[in-house]
Amino acid sequence: MNIPNRITLSRILLIPIFIVIMSVSFEWGEWKIGYDVLPVSHFVAAIIFAIASLTDWVDGYYARKYQLVTNLGKFLDPLADKLLVSAALILLVQINLVPAWVVIVIISREFAVTGLRLVAAGEGIVLAASHLGKIKTATQLIAITLLLLHNFPFSYINFPLATIMLYIALFFTVLSGLDYFIKNWHVMEDSK
Q1: Which of the ends of the chain has fewer CB neighbours closer than 10 A, N or C?
Q2: What is d(CA 60, CA 140) in angstroms, rounded to the nearest whole number?
């Protein structure tokens, strides 16, 4: 297994740690931040999430720079992204920081695009990630990190950047999904 794939695997291995820290009631205290409080466990989870998110950029950069792109990496990298984002969003619904309908839309888009990729793979076609898809991922990761931090440091000025970023991420999630299907609809037509 090459280095980019090991980095991707480390992202997958951070997900259960992230889930445990967000799910178990650790009594680590909390900080007052502006008009809100930030549990220390959420701060720790945000750091783990941010580190896991950064590995997405690192493994891709390393794989492209040293021509280490593999089929395993093409499979693991988007899977790791989807698992990380889905776990975080579901946990944010559980603690009432994200509306469930937003998470349903985001996860549904991921299932739909994955389904299209599977159909394409069955036809021997590899569908590359689009520029809009990369923007979607970046906005999701930023929004989730801010939500895990309870909008810190913007909570001090009572500016809801985390919520704004969530809806920007939702916009790019829907837009990139539509773009993906429009550009690749021929795959569905050809597989009849």
Answers
A1: C
A2: 17
Q: Domain spans of the chain?
A: 3-190
Neighbours of 65 (CB within 10 A): 9
First to last CA, the chain: 37
Q: Look at residue 191 in the predicted model and tell me its pLDDT.
A: 64
Please state the φ and ψ torsions of residue 28, each to the nearest 5 degrees: -95, 0
**116 Cα distance to chain centroid:** 19
Supply the pLDDT for residue 152.
92
Q: What is the pLDDT of residue 192?
A: 62
pTM over 0.85: yes
3-state secondary structure 87-140: HHHHHHHHCCCCCHHHHHHHHHHHHHHHHHHHHHHHCCCCCCCCHHHHHHHHHH
What is d(CA 83, CA 43) in angstroms, rounded to the nearest whole number? 20
Q: Which long-range contacts (CB under 8 A, 24 or more apart) does 182-188 make?
A: 183/130, 184/116, 184/120, 184/127, 187/116, 187/119, 187/120, 187/123, 187/125, 187/127, 188/116, 188/119
